[in-house]
Automatic annotation (TrEMBL):
Cited Pfam families: Fe-S_biosyn (PF01521)
Lineage: Bacteria, Pseudomonadati, Pseudomonadota, Alphaproteobacteria, Sphingomonadales
Domain of life: Bacteria
Protein name: Iron-sulfur cluster insertion protein ErpA
Entry-linked PANTHER family: IRON-SULFUR CLUSTER ASSEMBLY 2 HOMOLOG, MITOCHONDRIAL
Domain Core: 5-104
Gene: erpA
Length: 109
């Protein structure tokens, strides 16, 4: 894969904490679905394992997995976990996104 996905240390720590509470492996699945206010939206889930054709990135023992279809839309992205007065959330800094929404959960190409 030419452009790898990156999971920041802050995001890796948060995934590890959530996975530990839920007694699941520390594997975050990022996928892209149609919808949202800008055309596509990000979806995050804990996964039991990576699929054979997934792209896998590792940060401090926490894996970020993305399916091939979603990867076309998020290649080169950085997944971070941010906390602010407005709340806490995973954020995707996507170099492929031409437009986005205010909440950061959807984007357009």
């Amino acid at each position: 894969m030419a452009e790898m996905l990156t999971l920041t240390e802050a995001a890796a720590k948060r995934v590890a904490a959530i996975a530990e509470k839920q007694a699941k492996p520390a594997i975050l699945r990022l996928s892209v679905e149609g919808g949202g206010c800008s055309g596509f939206q990000y979806k995050f889930d804990l996964a039991e394992s990576a699929e054979g054709d997934d792209s896998v990135s590792d940060t401090d023992g926490v894996k970020l997995v993305v399916d091939p279809v979603s990867l076309d839309l998020v290649a080169g992205s950085v997944v971070d976990f941010v906390e602010s007065l407005g709340g806490a959330a995973f954020r995707v800094e996507n170099p492929n996104a031409a437009a986005g929404c205010g909440c950061g959960s959807s984007f357009g190409i």
